[in-house]
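Suppose a colleague, Dr. K., hands you the sequence of a protein chain of 408 amino acids and asks what its three-dimensional shape might be. Before reaching for any lab equipment, you can write down a predicted structure in token form. Begin with the sequence itself:
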Amino acid sequence: MIIKTECSICEGSLEEIINLGECPPANNFVEKKNQDVESFPLIIDFCQQCYCIQLRHCLSKKELYSFYTYSTPQIDSLAKHYENLLKKLKELNFAQKSQSCIEIGSNNGNLLNFLKPHFNKVLGVDPASNIASIAIENGVETIIDFFSNKVAKKILEKNTKFDVAIARHMFAHNEDPSEMLSAMDKILDESGVFIIENAYAIDTFKNGEFDQIYHEHMFYFSALNINALMNKFNFELIDFEHAPVHGGSGVFICGKKGKHTIQKSVGKILSEEEKYFNDKKIFQNFREKIEATRKQVIELIAKDISSNKIVGAYGAPAKAFTVFSYYGLNHRNISFCVDTTPTKIGKVFPKFNIPIIAEDELADHDYDTLIVNAWNYKEDILKKSSSIFKKGTKLIFIIPNLEIYTVN
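The predicted structure, expressed as tokens, is then:
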């Protein structure tokens, strides 16, 4: 474990934003209850010099990915997002039949499968063998490894440089991005684009998305800190778009220095972000908002349990680890958690001892209330709620605002 005492981008001094206590590494489920798993601090710091927001305690790759279980779902909101990404690529004169695309952290290959018909070649790189094997089975060529200078060299032995590189919701998963950017510089064509998509820091803190804070997420990116990071290397931020997925994501489009026209969107977003970060009220409001919601939710759960109602959870994403930890929830007040990911079903949340069941097992369980951890798929969940939950079920969404729905 690395404990940061200075900014990872500019080596500036840091100040604490929030301490959420200790939590096991997210997505690392166990086979049985009461299985020993170590917990680690979740503390977020802020650099006033380059505006970098970062996790203080960073775990090793082995600790994070030895038992990785996240598999990208196939749902309407993501399908629409992929279409928007393709549209943007075409606007930039990419996604042509003569071009190639590489995705770093390609997971089960869903995005590359979608993009495959629009490129001459697609290639994925992902270290989680159990998840990457799904992509390979589905016909997406995938290198099972961590992306690095060594891997980049191997890729170039068999391939020409790539026109498009994509890193969706994984660029923040490295305690030091310099190795990745150095490797990216090697494999990206001089006129190519590198698209980084991550949870957008402004949304994370403005909306009280505290559950975006877990050990995989070592950085909380905004255009300001992406721009500062790119300027350290042979890249620059050339365009920015906001996407609604995952509670609000930033799509940072980067290219090699001097090879592209920098769009007006860049200057605009940099100016907007400075207003948020200079007075730091966004962090104070964040702390107040999440603590107020925590108290309300704990009261709701306690009231239901005192009335002999059964409370469960819906969704076992990485975010759920932070929710259960910060809210002080465990098997005594959350009877089970429902998920649709085969690699998670049958497993148990470590420390909290909450078992994970499949959707089709719900019919065999008594329940009255469900805390929805997968709030970022709210519309998808509500759309199918009447077909998967029994009538009268109370669904509690805690982010961005506390909302309660009753299934009709």
